Amino acid sequence: MESLLEKTSDTSNLQYTFVMLAILLLESTTLLIGNGTHDQKGLEDFPYGSSVTYLCDPGYILIGSATIHCLSSGVWDGPVPKFAGCPPPFIQNGGHSSQQAAVFTRGMVVTYTCDSGYNLTGEKTIYCTDLGTWSFPAPRCEGMLFRIVHCGSRNAIYTMGKSSLEELKTCLRQLPKLRSLQIFQNY
């Protein structure tokens, strides 16, 4: 706090009045953010009434108010905004075209694939929107299911259905002299 000496006088009596003037200063460290900047970079202190406006780094989305104001109470009128991209696009039993990316920014496209033995269900390609969300829900990699029609002879037919891939492998091991295999998939 700083004090201001205010001198007042009248004809009969000379008086001095001390007035305490509270100058509220906020440190700039409260304004530091990642993935963006603000328009008051050179300032170290922010007096009452000052404002700060934030801008995102390319590819990031501002979440919150772009401008905050210093109140007479010595606090800002809102939280410092955040800058975000999309959350990492996880997929179990598969991967995506940007596995090595640390940040998924606005406009970034991700294409999914599934591990061997799994089928992709949902959108194969999605992108990060201006709102920091993906254009579609992440797809799923589901295990291929087979319904065993006949197992134990030299010919076997499998169709998509209720049996698991492990059951199919077990059946195939029982057919060491299998000459041909027909697999019908229902889409």
UniProtKB/TrEMBL annotation:
Database matches in CDD domains: CCP
What Gene3D superfamilies does its record include?
A: Complement Module, domain 1 (2.10.70.10)
UniProt keyword annotations, A-Z = Disulfide bond, Repeat, Signal, Sushi
Residue ranges annotated for the Sushi domain, each copy included: 24-83, 84-143
Leader sequence range is none
Q: Could you tell me which cysteines form disulfide bridges?
A: C114-C141
Q: Which PANTHER family match?
A: PROTEIN CBR-CLEC-78
Q: What is this protein called?
A: Sushi domain-containing protein
Q: Write down the species.
A: Varanus komodoensis
